[in-house]
Every structure is written in C-alpha cells, then in structure tokens.
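User: Fold both of these, please.

Assistant: Here is the first one.
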Amino acid sequence: MSTPPPGPAPSTVVSRAVMAGDDMSDGNASSAPTEEERPIVTATGPRAGTPTGSPSRSRSGPEDLSQRAPRRLRIDPGQPLGADAAPASYDSVVAVEPVPTVPYAWVQLVRPGGRLTVSWRNPFAGSVEAHLTVTEDGRATGHFVGWSGAPDPCAPASMVAEAEGAVPWYHTTTSLDPDAIWEDPAALFGLGIRLPNLRWARTGPGRHQTGRHQTGRHQAGPPAGAASPGTAPIRHWVYDDTSCASALRLPSGEVRVEQHGPRLLWREVESAFRWWEEQGRPTFERFGLSVTSFGQFAWLGHRCSGRIWRL
C-alpha cells in the first residue's frame, strides 16, 4: 500500500485578544506595533505629556516620590514668583507673610497630596496659620493650627475720626458687653469668619487704638471700658467703606450704640457673636480653610458640614 504524501507541518498558534484596528485579512501579520500598542501621549491630566504606556509609572497612580528629595518653596507675598516655579512641582509651599486672600496660583504650585502653609489675616483676630493639603481636583483644604496674636496696629479710618464728632444716624442700647468680645481672641476670630469685610478700631482718651496695640507709646491707663477722670471713655468701633458703629459704656453701666451710615453694623456684630456662642464658643482650631479656583471659604468642623462661608 502506498504511503500518503506528507502534509504541511503543524503550525504553532499563539492566541491574543483581538484589538480594534487589527488586520483581520489572511496576509502575514506585520511586525510593526499597532496604533494601540504604541505609548499614547496625553495632553491633559495631572501629568500632561507623559506616555500612558510607560512601564515605569501606572496611568492613574501617583508619582513615585521615594526616588527624589522633597521639593520645597518659600513665598514672599510681596515678591513675584520665580520663573522656575512650575505648576504641581513642589511638595511643600510656605508663605512667609500673612495675607487676607490666598492666591490660587499658590495652590497650583503644589502637587496633589502636597502641603500649602499660609497665614490668613483675620480682620478681627489677626493672623492665623493654616495647613492645607492639595487634592487631585485642585483645591487646598485644611484646619487652622496656630494664632500669632492680635492685629498689627494701624490708624482708624478717617470715617471713624469724623463719626466721633458727628450726630449719629441711629442710636440704641445693647445688652452685649463689647469687652466680652475684645478680651476673647476666640470671639474675635469668630467675628472675623462671619464678618470678613469689616474692620475694627478702639478709640480712647486722646488716642486711637486697634487690636491690642496703640498707635503711640504705651501708657498705663484704666481698665478696658472705664474712663479716667476728665477724659472720654473708650469706644469700640466696627466699620467698612460706607458705615461705622460704636459701642460706648456709660458711667451707669449701660452700653450705648451709635450707628453711622446705611448699614447697622453693630446689629451684625451682635448676630455674629450670638451665633458663635450657639456653636459652643469654638476656638480657631475647629475652623478650617479651603482655597479653590472660584474663591476661598471658611468652615466649622469639617468641609462638608454645611457651615461654610465665603471669605
């Protein structure tokens, strides 16, 4: 019996998943990589311009920081940023001077997971330090951690000086002791959170004061709220660009309030102070700060508590 002619040698088949764009014709497969096998350079995301097919870093995983020393930057708010200050390139950024508004450009300098340390200038309580962590979505958020003291001394606005000798638009009395506010840093901080656009001053016998400082050389005097014989008693002022109000303790113990301008500012002070008391008289450590591309906000407790205010 004749032996059948030998057939073609069996071929070895290596299977893989069919990918979009594969050539499904019967020709020999090309050795060149397909479009899907090439690294893709993305123009968006936290690491713009990074090949997503690179084996050294996952597509969505964080950068491996163990291979390099942390990068730190100190910022002077009065000086422009250096030309080498690239976005998302620092692990820690520290502002060396307090500011009333934290620029969002500072947040952009910090990589996700890094820290931004700032001192926010509370208009009533002075500078309070905050440690903020930068998140993947581009916001910086964290709690206040340290109070540096009362506000820097500055002369009261001309509006206050003029109002001292003017007839008030409106006057009343109050049960709120102004000394209970100005002797308590936590109360002042609470007012600054709720009334961030107001400023305050204190005028006494022959001199102007703000915070715990006088604009002249310190001299011993009577206790807060009291008056020396033959001198004017101390007044506590709050003011903005259009209105001002003062609280004055009379010899009878009654506190008289004088309002100048369209806003009844002392009523706003009373409301903010009573809110602070209703919250349990919180100190600054219970408050936090968030800085975003659309503004900065203070909150009490935690960021999603619903107790949040634009600064």
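And the second sequence with its predicted structure:
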Amino acid sequence: MKPRESTIQAKEFQAAALRRQVAQYERMIADLEVIAVELGKQIEAEERRSGVNDPSNFAYSTVARAAGERRKNLSATIADLTDRASRAADELVGIDGFFAALASADVGGGATDGTMARSAA
C-alpha cells in the first residue's frame, strides 16, 4: 500500500470514528437532559409536598436538596459533553477539509463525495 493510500485510509477511519463519537455524545446529552427534567419535576413535587421552597431553610426537604445536587451535577456533565461533541465536530470539519483539498489537488482521479476512488491493483 502506498503512503498516500494509507494516509487516506487512516483519515477515513478517523472520520468514521469521530462521526460515531459525535452521535454517541448527542444521544448521551439527550438522555441526560430528560433525566434533568425529571429531577426538576421531582424537586417541584417534593417542595409542594413539604411546603418549603427555600433551599436555605433548615426545614427544606433532604430529598429535594439531593435531587437539586444531582440536577446540578447533570448540568455540568451535559456542558462537558456538549464541549466534547463540539471539539469532535470541529476535528471532523478539519478532516473533511483534508479530503476536499485532496480532491481538488487530484483533479483527474478524485471522487465527488470527498473520498478517493480506489483503483484495483
């Protein structure tokens, strides 16, 4: 295998892995957002049940306090996953740029989908 072909194959593999990773991040973010909404509902229900809405009040429900901490932690996790997904998407754009530059440099043999046409050797 020629060095150029191995580089192309490595970039294709890297792009596929990044696409899978971005999709996985997006699924995880969606799942965590649903859990955060459910925790919010649980907090509201507990505050209604106890009649105390102020977390600084000594009589505030420990269940509501714990659910609030879990929701806060989930929000931090969602922010981190969003940042990771953004960085992976940016890296994917760079790889797509590599294929676009490769296709424009190889005027006669480039494929239109951003990948190189493989010759049967």
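Helices lie at 3-50, 62-105.
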